[in-house]
Structure formats: structure tokens, C-alpha cells
Write a structure and sequence with these properties.
mainly alpha; 63% helix; DUF4287; DUF4287 domain-containing protein
């Protein structure tokens, strides 16, 4: 992929998530890691209810987290 290629998938939401909520993506990934072994929609719900994220932003963070967790 060339440097000029647009970011696709969940990561395409990251700039707007950082701007809107004032935290880097690593902050949200740490919250998800600390939440324990929850399912995708349980993690989405956690971000929405406890941290005030919108559904699309929460879903993008969880999708990225689950795709890259060890």
C-alpha cells in the first residue's frame, strides 16, 4: 500500500475519535484490554455507557481491538 492510500476499515474512524473524545486510540485500547474477556457487543456497550462514545466509534475501536489482540 502506498503512503497516499486512504486508511480503510475501523482505523478510518481513529482521527475523528481522537478529536471528538480527546484521547489517543491507545487509551481506548487499554480500556478494552482491562475490561476482561467480553464479547464484541459487550465491549461496544461498555464504551457507549461508561465513556459516552457513539455506536460507530465504539464499534470501530472494538473491531480493531479484537482483530489485533494477542
Amino acid at each position: 500500500m502506498s503512503p497516499a492510500s486512504p486508511v480503510k476499515g475501523p482505523a478510518s474512524y481513529f482521527p475523528s475519535i481522537e478529536k471528538k473524545y480527546g484521547h489517543p486510540i491507545d487509551h481506548w485500547q487499554q480500556i478494552l484490554a482491562a475490561a476482561g474477556p467480553l464479547k464484541h457487543m459487550e465491549l461496544v456497550g461498555l464504551l457507549k455507557v461508561e465513556h459516552g462514545l457513539g455506536h460507530g466509534h465504539a464499534n470501530a475501536l472494538v473491531a480493531h481491538f479484537m482483530a489485533h489482540r494477542a
